[in-house]
Structures are given as C-alpha cells and as structure tokens.
C-alpha cells in the first residue's frame, strides 16, 4: 500500500509538470517540481523506517506503471541531452544551489571519466554518438599518455597554502558586517593579516561552523547586521572555499585516488561499456567504419589495463590486482578490487558467451584470431569433482570453461556445436546455440556433459 502511494505521488508530480520537457518554465515552478519529488520519496522512506511495511495491499494498474516508466525514461533522456558538453563529452555530476526561496541554479563539475562510462552504458546513444564520445575522451584531459589509459578527473595545480582562505577586498566592502568587525578588531569571523589581506577564522571547518559563529553574534551589538547579512556572509564563505564542488581525494590529494591518478576499477567499467557499444553497433547493422573504430577504442582500452602490460610499465606484477596508479608512480594499493568483476564480464563478452532465455549462445564478435593457438597445446582445468583434467588442444583452437565444463573453440568454415556427454553420446547442432536442456545441465553442474566443441567461422573473428 505504501509503495503504491509513493508511486502515485511521484507519478502525479511528474505528470503535472511534464510540460517541462517541451517548454521552458520559470524557476518557481522548477523549485516546486523539486520539492514535490523530494517530498514523495522522503515521506515514503520516513514511513517505512518508522513503521515498517503495514502488510496492507492495494492495486495499481499495469497501464499506470507503464505510463510512469515511459515518462521517467523521457525525463532521463532529456537529462542526458541537457548534459552534453561542447567538447563532445557529458557532464557527470551537477550542483544544485538554492539561490533564494524562488530560485534554483544548476552548475557543473569538471569532466569525469565516470560520466562518460555512464552515458556509454546507458543504451541511449547511437553507435555513431558513442564513437563521438570515445573520440572526444581520447582527446580530453582525462587521457594519460604514459599509461595509455584514463584518469578520473583532469589533473590540476592546487593553490598553495598561502593562496587559500583569501577574501577579496571587494567582498569585504560589500558586507557591512565584515567591514565593521575588521574595523573593530573583532576576529570572531574574519581577521586581517600583516599584509592587509583578510581571512575567515582559521578554526572554521565548514559553513556550519561559520553559521554557529553568526548565531553567537546575535547576542551582541552586531545582531542587526547579522540579521541583515547572514546569507551574504555565508555566500562569500562559499565563494572563497567552493565547498559544494568538493569531490574528495580525487580533487585534492596526490596519492592513490588523487590528482592525476588512474582508478583501475573505473577503467574496467569503461572497457565493459565500450564492449556493449561494440555489440550494439554490430547487431544494429552499423557501418564497417563505425564498428571498426569502436573496436579500436575497445582494444586500446584493453591494452591499457595492467594485466596486459609489462612489469616495468605497470610498476608491479601485472597479474596482481591493484587499485590505483598515481601520477609518476607504478601501481599502488594492492587488493582484490571491484575491477576484477568487470574484467571477467568483458572477457566472457570477448569470448562471445551470451545467456538468453535460459540458453547459451556463442557469438564471439570481438574475439581476435591471434588468440587461437598456433601449435598444439595442453589445456588444464578442474572438473566439478575438483579433479585436475587435461585436454590436448589442436592448433587454431582455444578453450575456456563454463561452470567447469570445457568449451573448445575451433576455427572452421561453418557454424556448429558438438556436445560430448559422459555416457559416450555426442549431439551435433547446426547453430551457435545450446538448447535450454543442455544449458541447464551445464548451469546445474550435473556432470553429464564432458565438453562442448564450437566451430567458429573464420570470417567472424577480428
């Protein structure tokens, strides 16, 4: 019942103001939209936290849910369009500032790798548009030439200690309160140094500390000026420190996730997003040029990841997972990071393993011929009992396992699959798909299937 009420509130709010997508509206209406959306979620969350779920149920029509989802998609698509940058990239995070009771302003942070990963994996862009983003990304300040990879934020030069916490003279003059405090020698809020430069109280950590100090001044002779200029002084404080744009370590530190640092997990997310773009381009029938250039970006990002580098360039054992590579150093902060997940997904994508409607498909769109063996070799693996097994692989083949069942790819002129069962039976399929029954035997690790051989057409490989 509570969930239905929540959806109804959000749906009504969006529906009432859906003209926002087609026509400009004033800031007052914009603020009302924000308030209504925020209140719907806040009220629902508060009710669940305080009272849990009531257990009562009510109905909401399927048409209402469809309409709500379609309307949400229109808003999301509108948001993506509105956040396209002039340099071909997309804004990742925006800052909302409540300028007054009737006005909200939106400003942007700098370009971020995360924003490009998000828009590439959104499924909204066409293959040509995805290619434009990747071309722009390669030309941007996010590309790090020495590692042939990408940093989270553009590198920058931070101001020195003596350049911080400086209040411009014009801002002092604009405030009667600050001017009066300085004239009186009162250092409760601000102080003038021997060079006649003004600074906020060095004990303030943030605007809350400043606001508490202003509150204390309400009990002094400065009370009328505090009432008059409280918001002005807080605005000056924000202009000096720009706290709302603080992004953590990546914007202020130098090591690990700091300035100029590669965060490998995000690079692997980029790789996975570009894989999805490549598959979309191939399956949607894009031109050979677009597909080829998307594949070039994929393989370049792939080669830039540590496991494919020399120890000298990577700065560590390439097969060991590391979290970051700071500027001027090798890989740092060892540990099993989330990067591993994306790398595994990308690898299975390269191998063309697709599960759809309970069936296993083999569609190796991104697999390269150079990965196939040039000579006979032995493939070792552990079966479902934990026993080590070996298979002799012929040249022009490769092997991997699915749920501990070996799959052997062989280059041929036709597409086909041979399924070898433990009872000696062999089933031949003239397609690239295993039926649901065989797929389930693999997923359940029943032990009935010995191995699967897949013939891959040479023309399919890159």
Estimate the strand proportion: 15-25%
Rg calculated over all Cα atoms: 30 Å
Largest sheet: 5 strands, mixed
Structural class: alpha+beta
**Mean pLDDT rating:** 89
Low-confidence stretches: none
Looking at the structure, what is the overall shape? Answer: elongated
Provide the helix percentage. 40-55%
The rounded distance between the terminal residues' Cα atoms is: 54 Å
Total DSSP E strands: 18
What is the number of helical segments per DSSP (H or I, 4+ residues)?
15
Widest β-sheet, arrangement of strands: 14-15-18-16-17
Outline of the structure:
Helix content is 42%, strand content 18%. The chain has helices at 2-16, 27-51, 62-82, 113-121, 127-139, 169-174, 176-184, 207-217, 223-241, 249-252, 264-283, 288-304, 311-314, 339-351, 436-443, and strands at 94-100, 103-108, 143-144, 149-150, 190-192, 198-200, 262-263, 322-325, 332-334, 353-356, 359-362, 377-382, 388-393, 397-402, 405-412, 416-421, 426-429, 449-457.
Structure description:
The protein is an alpha+beta fold. The chain is built from 15 helices and 18 strands. It has helices at 2-16, 27-51, 62-82, 113-121, 127-139, 169-174, 176-184, 207-217, 223-241, 249-252, 264-283, 288-304, 311-314, 339-351, 436-443; strands at residues 94-100, 103-108, 143-144, 149-150, 190-192, 198-200, 262-263, 322-325, 332-334, 353-356, 359-362, 377-382, 388-393, 397-402, 405-412, 416-421, 426-429, 449-457. The strands form seven sheets. A five-stranded mixed β-sheet has the order 14-15-18-16-17, covered by helices on one side. Strands 7-8-9 form a three-stranded antiparallel β-sheet. A hairpin with a 4-residue loop joins strand 16 (416-421) and strand 17. The protein is elongated and about 95 Å long. The mean pLDDT is 89.
